């Protein structure tokens, strides 16, 4: 039975009634809370732990000898225009580097080269038979699917424009694998940009050497010689620098603590949800009882 505040208004409800109601139904509230806590614990320990490996890198300016080239770029007509176009800007270099790091060439190429699709979609992969569980083109993931999943859920690049530093991160269930993938992606990006810079410098040198042979102007030959000197410097740096563009400031270390799931938070929220559901249940049940009692009282008064 529920305490009635008065005999004339059995449906009335005040703070005293509410506290009394909670006290009388405390076992139900405890039961709902316990069920919520147990469900939260189950979910928290069923979810796969995810670890985050990250490295802080600095983007080197791909502009060795740029000052000399810029000084000469406007002095010799079409040759100066060519050199000026080749120089670009530091901002262009930065944008190209970040775009390359996250490009299909790097990410999708890495997935294909290392056959990562079975690992990325392990629920669809039959390890015992070493094949996909279903031979259906709509079911089997493609390298494009892997690229999309990798960029959206696993791989991230954060550019801090104030410091000029870039944080590159990989989130995965195995911490050592996350570090390996991260280091490989950075190294592959450096290698591709390095090879590209070498090819461009070699092409520029061939062009400049040809122009030097075909001119008799002393000043122009001197300018070409200085341009070649700058290109040779760029070529030397590209060939002899391991971390050519992405210079690692803070290398990735094997993470020991997972970033998710946050088990304490999950369990706490689940317990709060259980308590909330219990409160709603108790309030509704008692409201129905009050209404029933009120009707009975009204019928009795009419008689």
Which tags fit this structure?
single chain, 303 residues, alpha+beta, four-stranded antiparallel β-sheet, two-stranded antiparallel ribbon, disordered N terminus
Radius of gyration: 35 Å
Average predicted local confidence, pLDDT: 85
Helix residue percentage: 55-70%
> Which segments are poorly predicted (pLDDT under 50) over 5 or more consecutive residues?
1-12
SSE succession: HHEHHHHHEEHEEHHEH
User: Rough shape?
Assistant: elongated
Number of helices: 11
Derived from helix and strand composition plus strand pairing, the structural class reads alpha+beta
Give the number of DSSP strands: 6
Strand content: 5-15%
- The strands making up the biggest β-sheet line up spatially as 4-5-1-6
Give the biggest beta sheet.
4 strands, antiparallel
Taking the alpha carbons of the first and last residues, their distance comes to: 23 Å
Structure description:
The chain is an alpha+beta fold and 303 residues long. The chain has a domain at 51-250. 62% of the residues lie in helices and 10% in strands. It contains eleven helices and six strands. It has helices at 15-24, 26-46, 66-73, 77-87, 90-101, 107-113, 117-120, 143-154, 175-213, 218-240, 263-302, and strands at residues 51-59, 125-126, 131-132, 155-159, 165-172, 246-250. Strands 4-5-1-6 form a four-stranded antiparallel beta sheet. The longest helix is centred in the C-terminal third of the chain and has 40 residues, at 263-302. The protein starts with 14 loop residues before the first helix and ends with a helix.
